[in-house]
């Protein structure tokens, strides 16, 4: 999702799509569908048309504009009513689950899903997660001159169009996904720092993993919680054996060229508890890493209330992984412009 995309989405893309759909619907109303379908399936050249139809049906996500349709669908789906007005605090670190299937055009010469195609799926899964969790904060940031959520150093509201930028994606592959094989994408927020919101996406064997509950109205199968034994121990299943691949991404929120602290977006979406003390919600900003002064969180019970300590504990735990991912930005300095030469310049890139 490029910076500035959302500023054009509702005023430009939505009216254009609505007009296109309305015109197509108008034309479809006057068409003789019975005659057209009869000719399609029985007329001359029917074999080629039927084969082409089947091919298109098996490759819908890979057709021209297929990615665009999938991404715009996530915007409309969540911003126009899929998200309940309120979500429980624990939803901030919960998974958004999306199902897909490997199309024939995604299959490489090894007869499995091409590694390059995982990134398009991650785009869709991330968009579902972010627009579902943070959609209340997006219009609030978009009208920052009124809401005054983001202020500059002079205390004035920052001006500019709201947008979301993708900073980087890393993907680790474990097990192949075969042609036409179904799979699920489980995405959740891992952590955030002064600039980036980190998101992890797991590609999971379809139907093998079920959550213990669902937060909103869009639900699927569930499983029982892991029960502790009498001695206090518990046998945790090895969920990793169902993972095909894992990707981690980082998002940045922008108002024009101004970078918005992720905690402001999360807070505006009603998913960030106040930090104890006089600075309240602003306690998530400042300090060495611009996420508040480090304090001893003490013992955290996994069944405890999702207060500031519990959320901060989860953020710090995820940041231990995310900061290594962020350190890869420094590899830009390894590029020397071919100071010692290059191998060659090759055709068909």
From TrEMBL:
The chain crosses the membrane at residues 6-24, 36-58. InterPro entries: HotDog_dom_sf, THEM6_lcsJ_thioesterase. The keyword Oxidoreductase does not apply. It comes from the Eukaryota. The keyword Signal does not apply. Keywords: Membrane, Transmembrane, Transmembrane helix. Belongs to the lcsJ thioesterase family. This is Capsule polysaccharide biosynthesis protein. It comes from Podospora fimiseda.
């Amino acid at each position: 999702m490029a910076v500035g995309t959302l500023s054009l989405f509702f005023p430009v893309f939505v009216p254009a799509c609505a007009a296109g759909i309305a015109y197509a619907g108008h034309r479809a109303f006057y068409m003789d569908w019975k005659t057209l379908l009869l000719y399609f399936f029985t007329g001359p050249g029917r074999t080629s048309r039927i084969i082409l139809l089947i091919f298109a049906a098996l490759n819908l996500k890979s057709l021209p504009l297929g990615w665009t349709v999938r991404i715009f669908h996530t915007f409309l789906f969540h911003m126009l009513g899929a998200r309940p007005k309120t979500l429980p605090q624990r939803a901030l670190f919960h998974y958004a689950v999306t199902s897909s299937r490997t199309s024939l055009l995604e299959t490489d010469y090894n007869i499995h899903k091409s590694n390059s195609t995982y990134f398009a799926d991650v785009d869709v899964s991330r968009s579902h997660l972010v627009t579902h969790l943070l959609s209340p904060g997006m219009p609030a940031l978009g009208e920052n001159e009124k809401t005054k959520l983001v202020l500059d150093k002079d205390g004035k509201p920052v001006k500019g169009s709201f947008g979301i930028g993708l900073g980087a994606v890393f993907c680790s592959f474990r097990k192949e996904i075969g042609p036409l094989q179904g799979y699920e994408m489980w995405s959740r927020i891992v952590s955030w720092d002064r600039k980036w919101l980190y998101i992890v996406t797991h590609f999971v064997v379809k139907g093998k993993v079920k959550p213990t509950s669902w937060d909103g109205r869009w639900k699927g199968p569930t499983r029982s919680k892991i029960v502790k034994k009498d001695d206090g121990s518990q046998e945790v299943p090895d969920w990793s054996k169902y993972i095909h691949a894992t990707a981690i991404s980082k998002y940045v929120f922008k108002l024009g060229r101004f970078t918005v602290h992720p905690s402001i977006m999360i807070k505006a979406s009603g998913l960030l508890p106040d930090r104890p003390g006089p600075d309240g919600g602003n306690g998530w900003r400042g300090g060495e890493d611009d996420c508040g002064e480090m304090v001893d969180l003490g013992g955290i019970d996994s069944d405890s209330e999702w207060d500031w300590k519990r959320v901060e504990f989860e953020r710090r735990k995820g940041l231990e992984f995310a900061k290594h991912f962020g350190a890869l930005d420094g590899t830009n300095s390894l590029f020397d412009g071919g100071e010692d030469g290059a191998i060659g310049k090759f055709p068909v890139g």
